[in-house]
Fold this protein.
Amino acid sequence: MLKQRIITAVILVPLVIWAVLALPQDFFSLMIALITLLAAWEWLNLINVASIPKRCVFLLTLIVPMLVLHFWTQILELIALTFDWTDVRDQSGILEWLVIPPIVFWIIAMVLIRSMPTNLLALELKKRTKALIGWGILLATWLFLTRLRAFYSPEMAMYFLVLIWAADIAAYFVGKKYGTTKLSPEISPGKTVAGVFGALIAGALCSIAASLFYSFAFIFAADFLLLSVLTVLISIYGDLFFSLVKRQGDFKDSGTLLPGHGGILDRIDSLIAAIPLFYAGIYLMSRAVA
């Protein structure tokens, strides 16, 4: 299994790095949209939505807002020209407020997973509710990952991915070497407290390395360190959230698309939880130094 994981990673990682650093923004947005739709298909598997028409409707409810949000500036320009409403351009910043609901959701999920995992395993939600949750968190993933790259550079988007990868790798190996106390055995028996500390330390080291490389000012570097550690922390509970959903539906993996890794959701579960918080943090930090 580890060998398969390594082979798959060796193939995919260079492609991802190339896409993040070299693709034109529109193509990058399209690529992330396609990955999001594949993840959405797997989410429908996890919540036992078997009807093909319902699945297509669900994908359509993601595609339409993606198109609207991608062409948001052009839509505002068209409204301004049509109705002679020049102030409409000032409404472009309203999209930043969309980061609040997913952050609140993931904080609540983190608290509940930590405090009442057994109750969550027994919790039965309607498929409609589960579909709405999946819709919201997946749309937010696409939106804020593409905006992170568009507004704060491909390098910042690359840093975010490296941060999550480094944390995942550190959690795995530190947990395997030193893990004795389980983090949440009811949901994911393999995760340990030692693995969490390994991930947090890896996140801190990533932020320090980036701060030194880019010669960040001390205050900015300190904020960047805090943001990176908090991002890693919430990413861990994103992983646990999807483990919870899989355990409720008696699934081992979300899919089989990636040999050794399972499905798309199995690889981006940490990222899904982390990107809203990281984006919000970078947005606030950039405003503070502007």
In short: The first helix runs from residue 2 to 22. The radius of gyration is 19 Å. Strands lie at 182-184, 188-192.
